[in-house]
Design a protein that fits this description.
The chain has 193 residues and is α/β, with parallel strands linked by helices. The protein has five helices and seven strands; from the N terminus they run E-E-H-E-E-H-E-H-E-H-E-H. The chain starts with 5 loop residues before the first strand and ends with a helix.
Length: 193
């Protein structure tokens, strides 16, 4: 897949605000500070498209990015950030649950994990959440450039043993662009079904 255009469309804080144009969606979800915004910016080659921050928990709504005028990349709020109040965490959880439960346009969820921590309990819980809602999902290990070859092999083995029911597992580095082309090709196949 070649991305020729990508633009921010809207932020959604309630189910009623979701787009009603019927375009297919690929959602990205992961722990706070796992590199979700960096991945979106690298995939689209637009540096400031998704706001990155040194402060975890910055994404507090569902952000929609229109790609090639044909489909959406959807940035879901990060999970697992302790400094956010319990009320705020519950609000995010309800918003994400509502989106995952009902969204017909959602073709795939990309579950982003840190390659250095390939089987964290919180990521495995998100996998269960996705499976519970019958969502097709893929696991993408970010920050792969921070591992040496033996660590990469270990991370691959651990994640493939820990996660279940996934469509595919891939490595990606926003810093180097490694894995970008292969990931875009895989994502495209979910948009044509």
């Amino acid at each position: 897949m070649r991305i020729e255009s990508a633009e921010f469309v809207k932020s959604v804080t309630a189910h009623a605000g979701l787009p009603k144009d019927g375009l297919p969606e690929i959602a990205f979800v992961g722990r706070s500070n796992v590199g979700k915004s960096s991945m979106l910016n690298a995939l689209t080659e637009k540096k400031g498209l998704a706001r990155t921050s040194g402060t975890p928990g910055k994404t507090r709504e569902i952000n929609y990015f229109l790609v090639n005028q044909k489909f959406y990349f959807v940035d879901l709020p990060g999970y697992g950030y302790a400094k956010v109040s319990k009320t705020e965490q519950e609000k995010w959880r309800e918003l994400i649950a509502s989106y995952l439960q009902d969204r017909e346009e959602l073709k795939l969820v990309v579950l982003i994990i840190d390659a250095r921590h390939p089987n964290l309990e919180i990521d495995l819980e998100m996998q269960e959440f996705l499976y519970f809602y019958g969502r097709r999902y893929a696991v993408v290990r970010t920050k792969a450039d921070k591992l040496n070859q033996s660590e990469t092999v270990k991370a691959k083995r651990l994640s493939e043993a820990s996660f279940k029911h996934y469509e595919f597992i891939a490595d990606f580095s926003a810093a180097t662009g490694s894995g970008k082309s292969a990931l875009l090709t895989k994502l495209q196949s979910f948009l044509t079904h």
